[in-house]
């Protein structure tokens, strides 16, 4: 049965919950606990790493359980619905720690509630991804489903960056940068909790009619263990290519996400309003990359597309910092600064969006190949296994960046004018380590083996 746009839209809206969680973690969490509350970079890095490891370990388990679940509501929807309230509550508490906790108290608060947030999102998101993979068996319509998810995800990120940053962190005389104002973070907590819960509820109700499962070739096939699942999927060469590529990208993302707000505030000297404005470059780039996915897949296939996207994203994400360190990038006072940064962010966002859509579509193809060969439908487990490696690697990236901040002696709770130029340059060099892993991912993606069948275009 063909998918309607209404079903695709309802499914896509579910991505908003993950997007708000991810964007909030990326731009607010580490900065809030280190530069606003004063938690050391090493302790913050360890806390985030622990939460990510917990999240990574529970992902395959959630995928395995939801793949094996049977109920009159489907095998995905009960888990998705059960996650809405716990996720919203844990998110709110994460950003509202009581005063006077001290280093160990802040560390325990960050660790505990980051674990709870990630546990709740796992309960929802792994079944959600599995549902997306089984909505259709068409090679190109999978790209369409991933595109709807991508568009809605960008919308969620836009709400955080374009609305949340200037609305909750306006520039005032009391703070050199609005993001140093602790009063804005409870608003981040409340708005994020409500939007994530609503996103999950709308998605679950809007896709409730798509709960029928594909029928295996042999309905008598026995259930297999988690260990057997892992062994079976690892033998798939295309899965290994996606697994290792995701690992390298995730390390790069972990480093980038940890240091991105530090770079914006201290290296580039941007105000909160400027950060929100430049964030539009990435957010406009992502839809462009998503729209390019289907024609590029039809013209070049999925593997060349993701390899090219990985290389372009790595270049666009690092070249401005390199040129600034060399003293040849236009300064913030130059008329060229904003257009050039916006252009690089747009290109990087487009490449990232293209890579995300390509990877999601490719993983659905790998899951289908496995089902054709084994007779077992295990979409949730495939996506959770990729999520596992991504989060484990991202945990390493967060730890490297957090410890790195302490090693270079970067000051806590510091206004931008109080940080020395040597410390700022060290911060920039630390951020460039992310590029090494990003470039390396292109080589691993090139080992993917599946090719497209005779192309039949599917409209978005």
List its salient traits.
disordered C terminus; globular; 75% helix; 0% strand; mainly alpha; Growth Hormone, Chain: A
Describe the structure.
The chain is globular. 75% of the residues lie in helices and 0% in strands. The protein has helices spanning 5-13, 15-36, 41-68, 77-94, 102-134, 141-168, 185-206, 226-234, 237-267, 272-300, 302-325, 337-374, 379-407, 421-445. The protein has a single domain (8-208, 224-445), classed as Growth Hormone, Chain: A (Up-down Bundle). With 460 residues, it is an all-alpha fold.
In short:
This protein is mainly alpha-helical. It is built from 14 helices and no strands.
Strand content: under 5%
> Briefly, what CATH class?
Mainly Alpha
Helix content: over 70%
Low-confidence stretches: 211-219, 455-460
CA-atom Rg in angstroms? 21 Å
Please tell me the CATH architecture by its name. Up-down Bundle
Distance between the termini: 16 Å
Average of the residue pLDDT scores: 84
Helices and strands: which structural class? mainly alpha
> Strand-and-helix sequence, N→C?
HHHHHHHHHHHHHH
Integer tally of domains: 1
**Count of DSSP strands:** 0
Given the structure, what is the number of helices?
Answer: 14
Looking at CATH, the homologous superfamily is MFS general substrate transporter like domains
Structural topology:
Layout: H1 5-13, H2 15-36, H3 41-68, H4 77-94, H5 102-134, H6 141-168, H7 185-206, H8 226-234, H9 237-267, H10 272-300, H11 302-325, H12 337-374, H13 379-407, H14 421-445
